[in-house]
Amino acid sequence: xxxxxxxxxxxxxxxxxxxxxxxxxxxxxxxxxxxxxxxxxxxxxxxxxxxxxxxxxxxxxxxxxxxxxxxxxxxxxxxxxxxxxxxxxxxxxxxxxxxxxxxxxxxxxxxxxxxxxxxxxxxxxxxxxxxxxxxxxxxxxxxxxxxxxxxxxxxxxxxxxxxxxxxxxxxxxxxxxxxxxxxxxxxxxxxxxxxxxxxxxxxxxxxxxxxxxxxxxxxxxxxxxxxxxxxxxxxxxxxxxxxxxxxxxxxxxxxxxxxxxxxxxxxxxxxxxxxxxxxxxxxxxxxxxxxxxxxxxxxxxxxxxxxxxxxxxxxxxxxxxxxxxxxxxxxxxxxxxxxxxxxxxxxxxxxxxxxxxxxxxxxxxxxxxxxxxxxxxxxxxxxxxxxxxxxxxxxxxxxxxxxxxxxxxxxxxxxxxxxxx
DNA sequence: CTTCCACGGGAAGTCACGGATG
DNA sequence: CATCCGTGACTTCCCGTGGAAG
Length: 421
Description:
single chain; alpha/beta; Rossmann fold; Helicase, Ruva Protein, domain 3; Arc Repressor Mutant, subunit A; 3 domains; five-stranded parallel beta sheet; three-stranded antiparallel beta sheet; 8 strands; DNA-binding
């Protein structure tokens, strides 16, 4: 709850334990993920709106329910934290405002039931998650816990989209008082979502109950990213180590992609590290480009490692077709290949319908290019799949898994023979 | 404009599993 | 212990549909 001090002095400026001869960073912590900027000039308007929505809490009624949406790295979480800190500060200075803020991430809580259990755990401060009971009992348990809190309750649910269409709790919570589950308390819910479609897929009754106001965080443009980076760079780096092109290039890369400040900062940080590791005194454009490649590869690796075996098999099937130069391939072809591969590996074979789901999900995660096609009376409509990620890197990473590495090795050999990697 | 392919995708149902409950 | 709960991963079934060919 208490605002963490931002001063860290653990960046060694003087002696270089590993013998680096150059100085790049003056305060590296500014570039870390958990660094909280104290100002958000690019989001003044959004901060204002949040303030307006929270303001009723200071007048003894419930704050408006609030919905923040926008892609990752747009400052949603930082903005809400910032405003809640201010509100908390205010509450502490007033005798008649008793505030309870519960902040949680719905990440990995894929249903209302799970989310309720998670909230209970959060309020109980770390005890284990209840389970095994029916949903309504779980909700009742949650209300019991809520009754133990202060008069004004604000529940922040980050990544709220992960509960998908199972949104009963989102309907229940805002109406807890109306429905008599809570008597003397005011409750409001702040939802944060990366998924822009989530809002449209919510059931109408939830929309009605949850949506007092919504605030969109539009992607930063390159100019905004540049100012954000400049503010950070000023504190993070030693004077004069930044080549003129570096920040604009980081901004441009990030803006082209998702407009994510997080991504831009990561790029800048990585570029700085590369310069440092190479004993370069100045960070150049080349460092940024290298940083981008490294980060991109890391992103793929992380995603791929978390794939289930069946996901890997589906991906491998498309990779194999790619090596045979038969991509883009339609579902049927991929499925044939999949059956071959599954047979070789003696793994259980799923039905085509299921493999299609796996392929779709691989598309969503950015590993495959998925294209719909319609060839009318001769062909009808169908999907076409091809590999989106770098073939060599993909084979490398998949080869690390010893359940499938035999097949991957063979494929790598064929690909090498064909000069594809 | 109509036809109609072959796939997409929704729905419903089965199964196995971890944890709770009495 | 038997039994119940929610859930994810799966299969089975079947209706709906975009758009090139005619």
